[in-house]
Amino acid sequence: MGIPWDDVVVIQHGKDKNDPTVVTVNCPDKAGLGCDLCRITLEFGLRIKKADISTDGRWCYIVFWVVPNPSSLTVDWGSLKTRLLSACPSCLLTYHLNQQLTTSPSPPPIYLLKVWLIDQKGLLHDINEILCNLELLIQRVKVMPTPDGRALDMFFINDGMELLHTKKRQDYVCEFLKDALGDRCISTELQLAGPEYGQLQGISSLPPAFAEELFSSELLDKGSLHPLSQDMAPLKKPTVMVDNSLSPAHTLLQIECVDQKGLCYDIMRISKDSDIKVAHGRFSSSAKGFRSIDLLVQQKDGKKIIDPESQKTLCSCLKEEMLHPLRVIIVNRGPDTELLVANPVELSGKGRPRVFYDVTLTLKALGVMIFSAEIVRHSTQERQWEVYRFLLDESRDFPLTSSKARSQIVDKVRRTLMGW
Length: 420
Description:
The chain has helices at 33-43, 77-87, 94-102, 123-133, 167-181, 195-199, 208-215, 217-222, 263-273, 308-323, 355-366, 403-418, and strands at 9-12, 21-28, 46-55, 59-68, 111-118, 136-145, 150-159, 185-192, 239-243, 251-258, 277-283, 290-298, 327-333, 336-344, 369-379, 384-393. Strand 6 (136-145) and strand 7 (150-159) form a beta hairpin. Helices cover 31% and strands 32% of the residues. It has 12 helices and 16 strands.
């Protein structure tokens, strides 16, 4: 019959405010569940300090030790529990479990939020922060400034609470935004997205030279036009070892890499998209900035990973994602300066959480004005990418013609995204 619903997700706070919070999930298993749970914790701004994962293919037991990142972040733990529960298959009857495994969930509806406002430095991040607090997930964004000092920000969003179809929730979102923004907000409008969202779904118009720098594996091996700063250079040493001798039924993956934000999510995402089943996993705590991960895995057919080419492909993918889960460059777009940030998209179509939040936070802290911004998708032969394009405004305090200033922007953005 299962276990009581209240026991599916249990959240226990540490005795000391600096102790991690322990999140335990105990429910029927489904393909990609570990990835989905890691993604939700990342959406809430939590960093997984340690994790244990165990499943027999039918039932799973997962424990996360999490901390807010940054530590000053206020976390709605009740909403987190609700969201984690929503990702878990039904625990009541085997019938419901079978239905969950065989029926693909329909994608959530997309809504268009229009915000007319008086444009100010850092305002885009302020709106982003408000939407995050409201559990609204940004799928696309289009920022259009006007010559008279105003701007129209268009956010294509879905609702983590799945209540945006109700007038009460829509009215609450609009009123909350108006109250939070005060005199800076001229008007807000929220409605179900129409054909304009489909138009933004198309292939992006990235110039070939920009796409080559962002997505080329060869350039990643050689170092991009914006290499890691000197104190980050020693971090480029991820290792992945494959061992088929220790278990009769599973392949052991032993991973050592630098500790970074979203590491558990990245590894579980690769496993999910590669049809690799994680039977047991242990993500150890950071030691001197590095993490050790042990995974007992199987292929989709339940067999060990024996084929050398399959091993090589998986190891290569893991190393690349641990070294460059996000790509950051700054380029000239005619007379203007553009910051480009890219991350892989899951096969399910979901992008990486909080990228837009982290980038706008960094630019606000640096005092760099965003003239316009948009989120687009770009397809390469290997995968689809989510690309964040920020057209930056020249300022006296931060001259974008300076190579030092441009490198500082890339370095600060990368550090924030990676949690360094």
